[in-house]
Amino acid sequence: MRYIILGIQRRIWCHMTAATVAVLAVFPLTLMALDRNDPVTIIRQSLSGDLRPLGHVRLEWEALTTRYCDGVVRSRIIGSNGVVHVYATRPTVIRPRSGEHSVYSFEFTLPGSLSPGPARREAVVYYWCNPLQRFLNWPITVNRETIHFVVEP
Questions:
Q1: What is the pLDDT of residues 98-147, one digit of tens each?
Q2: Sign of the CA dihedral with 122 first, then 127, 133, and 136 last
Q3: Cβ–Cβ < 8 Å for 76, 86
């Protein structure tokens, strides 16, 4: 009878241990998989400078950061004639501590072949905020607000 009780206790202990290990492994992975919120809220953004082909332009934005994440930005400018000018992928420039409200800027040159008239800048940001997103190469993808401007002749 004693061996039966010990066998039952051993099985209960094994099942409890397996359940605990499963919960400790699955719970953090689930939290990381559900982590899909944009870590940066753009409050305001503007484009200024020489808005002619080959002109130097300054993009400025005010942002509230909820947490720090590594990221890259892919941006492009679409001219009035529909021609797409793609810029090189670059790291994000926002590096504050969580909860900081700051103003940032980035300078770039407009393409020489950009047609005069209405144009727009589009940007997509890819953030990696946890190890699971890095391991699976599954970033948080955010389409930033399009900036419309007029290219001068």
A1: 667 788 888 999 999 999 999 999 999 999 999 999 999 999 999 999 99
A2: positive
A3: yes
Q: How far lies 153's CA from each of 79, 118, 148, in Å?
A: 12, 11, 16
Degrees, nearest 5: CA angle 90-95-101: 125
Question: Within its chain, how far is the Cα of 125 from the centroid?
Answer: 5
Please report the DSSP string for the chain in residue order.
Answer: -HHHHHHHHHHHHHHHHHHHHHHHHHHHHHHHHH----SEEEEEEEEEE--STT-EEEEEEEEEESS--EEEEEEEEE-TT--EEEPPPEE----PPTT-EEEEEEEEE--TTPPSEEEEEEEEEEEE-SHHHHHTT--EEEEPPPEEEEE--
Q: How many Å separate Cα 87 from the centre of its chain?
A: 17
